[in-house]
Write a structure and sequence with these properties.
The protein has 510 residues and is α/β, with parallel strands linked by helices. The protein has 2 domains: 163 residues, Leucine Aminopeptidase, subunit E, domain 1 (3-Layer(aba) Sandwich); 325 residues, Aminopeptidase (3-Layer(aba) Sandwich), CATH 3.40.630.10. The protein is 38% helix and 20% strand. The protein has 15 helices and 21 strands. Strands 8, 9, 10, 11, 12, 15, 16, 17 and 19 form a 9-stranded mixed sheet that branches. Strands 1, 2, 3, 4, 5, 6 and 7 form a 7-stranded mixed sheet that branches. Strand 2 and strand 3 form a beta hairpin. Helix 3 crosses helix 4, helix 6 runs parallel beside helix 9 and helix 9 runs parallel beside helix 15. It is elongated. The structure holds ligand BES, manganese (II) ion and zinc ion. Ligand BES binds next to helix 11.
């Protein structure tokens, strides 16, 4: 999709379609009122006849509007004006995009970005509009023999900004939106790919492909089973032992900052299929455990966004990737392993495998990259889905400043996280009679005890954990990867880069 920004009056747009909003009940937004005025009350007359109430999700495509230069006008319901928030804005844009795509308007000028939205400037609206459109029009049909595609798809969308003064910042916002959307797309594609294609080896190849697209700033290093056994990654290797598919530790370095600047480390869970291992999962919906690598995919997606944005910071992605399968060589409940950190773990449930691969990856990142902050991203617990549903990521952290940065980034990006407590009381649930800790903490507070386990490997780090078990994919009719939390993580890095640039500027001025 091609996006541009433009200022000007809706009546003067020579295009296939102009998109304007209508609030409920039958109240024209400012751009719609301009069209109405130019056309001598044409839209008012339509509304009076009851063709459109203005409810969320409603649309009306109108032809032959007098005295305007466009072929048609798409009216989009916005809901009540006082309830028009970020979510309503994004939904209105998505609805417009889907309608245009289906109805054969290959080009349109969209005035939804000119609507007032409390606390959000034009750049925010433009960036979010780009991301919402790309999100709404995403399809994963590469494995279908005959993909269903619109005959005349939307190709070019012009986003209206209120004045010429905002053209430059609008263009910048388009670039940012596109970069994040490309990261989200990569993450969704990887998540949606079946587990017989998207193996640890495939993820490593994808990381190399990413480096190939950005050779000047991205480096990749991949470790195999022998390397990791030699290093002493006993926990990660305990998970990998049951599978014939070779495990990989994928390290992707993005170098956009200074030579000596410590990186932000992103550690992503890359279980390309989670059967549970010997602690086998029930058959119901087990196919969804192909999405158990969405943490890994979001690390690659965020690095893709980062590289496209050429952010002036250093980031390192560390991805432990393996399958979790039962077999004659698989880990047994009761096995005790030594982690890379030296701490021992009694594996009481082989289905609590995410923390086992992550703990070694965290230690590896700490030792080899001395990160300024480390964030792990994982589809870690069913308990998190019970606690927060599919709307918020679970966030747990040992550093209040880092947690607040992530919460704020999530709000800006409409990709929110919600913090859960990481108190010592919960940590006590991990006690083992035979090793330093068990890999499970009982039925209660499962999302928290999983994070407590990881926290034991991040004591010397500024660390945060995002549990994306509920947010990384949708189930049912709309089953598929969401690309979350790439928007949150990208925003977090954008904000960090901006703050560091500000700090450097102030230092220069001395
Ligand atoms: N990948 C799963 C978590 C999961 C389950 C995500 C369902 C989304 C939907 C993870 O490896 C797992 O199996 N966790 C166990 C932990 C338990 C054994 C302590 C769980 O949540 O049941
Ligand atoms: Mn599991
Ligand atoms: Zn898992």
């Amino acid at each position: 999709m091609e996006f541009t920004v433009k200022s000007g009056s809706p009546a003067k747009q020579r295009t296939a379609c102009v998109v304007v909003g209508v609030y409920e009940p039958r109240r024209l937004s400012a751009p719609a009122a301009e069209l109405d005025e130019a056309s001598g009350g044409f839209l008012t007359a339509l509304l009076r006849r009851g063709d459109l109430e203005g409810r969320k999700g409603q649309t009306l495509l109108v032809y032959n509007v007098p005295n305007v230069l466009c072929d048609r006008v798409l009216l989009v319901g916005l809901g009540r004006e006082r309830d028009f928030d970020e979510r309503a804005f994004r939904e209105a844009v998505a609805t417009a995009a889907r309608t245009l795509d289906e109805r054969g308007a290959m080009e349109a000028v969209c005035f939804l970005t000119a609507l007032p939205l409390k606390g959000r400037d034009t750049a925010w609206k433009v960036q979010q509009a780009v991301q919402a459109v790309e999100h709404a029009l995403y399809r994963f049909d590469r494995l279908k023999s005959e993909p269903e595609r619109p005959r005349r798809p939307l190709r070019r969308l012009v986003l209206a900004v209120p004045s010429r003064r905002e053209l430059a910042s609008g263009e910048e916002a388009v670039r940012t939106g596109r970069a994040v959307a490309e990261g989200v797309r990569l993450t969704r594609d990887l998540g949606n790919l079946p587990p017989n294609t998207c193996t640890p080896t495939y993820l490593a190849d994808e990381a190399r492909a990413l480096a190939g697209r950005h050779p000047e700033r991205v480096r990749v290093q991949v470790l195999g089973r022998e390397d990791m056994e030699r290093l002493g990654m006993g926990a990660f290797m305990a998970v990998a032992r049951g599978s014939a598919e070779p495990p990989r530790l994928i390290v992707v370095e993005y170098r956009g900052g200074g030579e000596d600047e410590r990186p932000v480390a992103l550690v992503g869970k890359g279980i390309t299929f989670d059967s549970g291992g010997i602690s086998l999962k029930p058959a119901q919906a087990m196919d969804e455990m192909k999405f158990d690598m969405c943490g890994a995919a979001s690390v690659l997606g965020t690095l893709e966004a980062c590289a496209r944005l050429e952010l002036p910071i250093n980031v390192v992605g560390v991805i432990p990737a393996t399958e979790n399968l039962p077999s004659g060589t698989a880990t047994r409940p009761g096995d005790v392993v030594r982690t890379l950190s030296g701490q021992t773990v009694e594996i009481l449930n082989t289905d609590a495998e995410g923390r086992l691969i992550l703990c070694d990856a965290i230690t590896y990142a700490e030792r080899n990259h001395q990160p300024e902050a480390l964030i792990d991203i994982a589809t870690l617990t069913g308990a998190c889905v019970i606690a927060l549903g599919r709307h918020a990521h679970g966030l747990l952290s040992n550093h209040a400043g880092l947690a607040n940065e992530l919460l704020a980034a999530g709000r800006t990006a409409c990709d929110r996280a919600w913090e859960l407590p990481l108190w010592p009381e919960y940590d006590e649930q991990l006690k083992s009679n035979f090793a330093d800790m068990a890999n499970i903490g009982g039925r209660e507070a499962g999302a928290i005890t999983a994070a407590c386990f990881l926290a034991r490997f991040a004591r010397k780090l500024r660390w945060a954990h995002l549990d994306i078990a509920g947010t990384a994919w949708l189930t049912g009719e709309r089953k598929g990867a969401t690309g979350r939390p790439v928007p949150l993580l990208s925003q977090f890095l954008i904000d960090r880069a901006a703050r560091r640039a500000g700090a450097r500027g102030r230092a220069r001025e001395g």
